[in-house]
Amino acid sequence: MRGSACSSAWFSGIDMNIIVCIKQVPETTEVRINPETNTLMREGVKSIINPFDMYAIEEGVRLKEKVGGKVTVLTMGPPQAEAALKEAISLGADEAVLLSDRAFAGSDTWATSYTLAAGVRKLKEYDLIICGKQASDGDTAQVGPGIATHLDIPQVTYVKKIEEVKDKTIRVERMTEEGYEVIESSLPLLITVVKEINTPRMPSLRGLMRSKQAKITVLGVKDLDVEATHLGLCGSPTQVAKIFTPPARPEGEKIEGTAEEIAVKLAEILKREK
Amino acid sequence: MDYLFTEEQKMIRDLCRQIAREKIAPIAAEYDRSEKFPHEAIKIIADSDLFAIFVPVEYGGTGGGVLDLSIATEELSRACGGIAVCYAASALGTFPIVLFGNDQQKKKYLPDLAKGKTIAAFGVTEPEAGSDASAIKTTAEKKGDYYILNGTKHFIDNGGEAGIYTIIAMSDRNKGARGASAFIVEKGTPGFTFGKKEDKLGIRASVTSELIFSDCKIPKENLIAKEGMGFIVTMKTFDMSRPGVAAQALGIAQGALDVAVKYARERRQFGKSIASFQGIQWMLADMATKIEASRSLIYSCAKMIDSGNTNVAKESAMAKLFASDTAMQVSTDAVQILGGYGYMRDYPAEKYMRDAKITQIYEGTNQIQRNIIALQLIREAAK
């Protein structure tokens, strides 16, 4: 089932259904790993919304404020992930859905994106799915693209700006290491966003009051159209052998001096590296 | 201490604490140096609905009470007394409309003030009318459907930045204090300009300016309450706002204590952290105790006002007096604990000391507060 795209244009006031997928992560960057299962250990660590997802929430809310519509936040996690959804509501999201079931525990990125895609299908109507570029605990950057693949919709990763939303199309800027690409796509579309896209707002008093009273929809295995064998630890094809932080890329060389000196030095380097 | 806040009050506290920590603390020193108006911080405060706290629900606010406003002011002041006063001064300028404005005035002005689309200022002080507010010389002469304002107000917080001004002027000079009236004046009204911008010891992120009225013609609909009500409007406004000044002082004191405790734990002399010395410990203990006593007094007074009690002159004077004297003493002690570093602008202690001083002076000097308290004691005894 494909999401039904409704017509929308910049500042048109026509409703747009936006889904923002978020993840609750441990606040500390020093994530502990269970050595037996090689999965994240969450006990005793304060949980926050994945920092990259804060940009996704903000972009969704900004888009809604421009074109009208609704922002639904979606997450998969234990019951306490409700706190992350409530926080998203305090930041301007309208509705929240939690996918929570013991059967989802231990999911890798494949099983997670499979489950989240099933959650999106359950929501039926959507025009745009926004994810943070990656989570601060796992750092895989795979779940966003995975959701798009499971839903069979186009995706653009590392979006740094939404340029324009028109009738059934969207134009975005995708950040690359050298600059950026301008990509136009049909809707529905999934994007993952980088921190350059906006500055997330502070919560508002009215948002906090709304979030306090907000009712979170909780969906389990029975509520979703999913294959049980594709869920949780058992449904996860990934076998983690070892987790480590890769060495940082070496810094580039900065050439300084007058234009002439720079040209000479650059020519020397190019000759040497030939 | 647990003050048994409502859920909403806890939200206000936590939200303001987050804004103070993440958005105000990092820019406080910069605005203190540049003395520029903190537009970016005010926008964040506005977008977070904090200007809505002191506006009734039916006019676009959240209908919070004096305690809610005190909590917000305290938390914001903990990071910067200057930025916080831009906020609190808007509440001060808004109170006369909330308390005495008619429905039409409330509908016209309060929704934008609640959104923080514009801020307010309150103008009573003049060069020759400080503690003696009855000495004001600014006049409001009625001519047909208008009042013509002439005169100069000075030391007005948010002057020049505010869009809405509540101004006290003499509509009948012969009646003395009973001849004063309160008016709403919009920025941009012909004949209304801004004079000198003050260069201040502390609260430098706030703007304090002269307001000049020169044949400034305002519609008669802008009269608040009735002619001759100017001083009652002023006194009732101050009764409401005094816990707010006290809360500002409290926040400054708490911020100074935070700095002092952190430094005392980190600073090592004679091979130990200075927090291990009893001399420092006793200072910190006294500072913390006075702060908590101020807090209890302010919250109790605010709750009294929120319960509808209008006979609060003594209590709100006590809260303002005690909290501001505490702020001055605690911030001075914080500088002392930081020693040479405390005296340097690269460290945050001295700013708290400079910001604290004004709280003993404005909205009634602490000497005037003592007069109010004593007068009330004598009146009570005479009953």
Would you give an account of this structure?
The complex is a heterodimer of chains A (274) and B (383). Chain A has 274 residues and is α/β, with parallel strands linked by helices. Chain A is 27% helix and 25% strand. Chain A has 6 helices and 13 strands. Chain A has helices at 51-67, 82-90, 109-123, 143-151, 205-213, 259-273; strands at 16-21, 24-26, 32-33, 40-41, 47-49, 69-76, 95-99, 128-132, 155-166, 169-175, 180-186, 189-193, 217-219. Chain A has a 9-stranded mixed beta sheet with strand order 11-10-9-12-8-1-6-7-13, with helices on both faces. In chain A, strands 2-5 form a two-stranded antiparallel ribbon. Residues 1-9 of chain A have low confidence and may be disordered. In chain B, strands 1-4-5-8 form a 4-stranded mixed beta sheet. In chain B, strands 2-3-7-6 form a 4-stranded antiparallel beta sheet, with helices on one face. A two-stranded antiparallel ribbon of chain B has the order 9-10. In chain B, strand 9 (268-269) and strand 10 (272-273) form a beta hairpin. Chain B starts with 6 loop residues before the first helix and ends with a helix. The model of chain B has no long low-confidence stretch (mean pLDDT 96). Chain B is of the alpha+beta class and 383 residues long. Chain B folds into 3 domains: 7-119, Acyl-CoA dehydrogenase/oxidase, N-terminal domain (Butyryl-Coa Dehydrogenase, subunit A, domain 1), CATH 1.10.540; 121-230, Butyryl-CoA Dehydrogenase, subunit A, domain 2, CATH 2.40.110; 234-382, Butyryl-CoA Dehydrogenase, subunit A, domain 3 (Up-down Bundle). Chain B has 10 helices and 10 strands. In chain B, 54% of the residues lie in helices and 15% in strands. The radius of gyration of chain B is 21 Å and the shape is globular. The interface between A and B is medium-sized, with 10 and 17 residues.
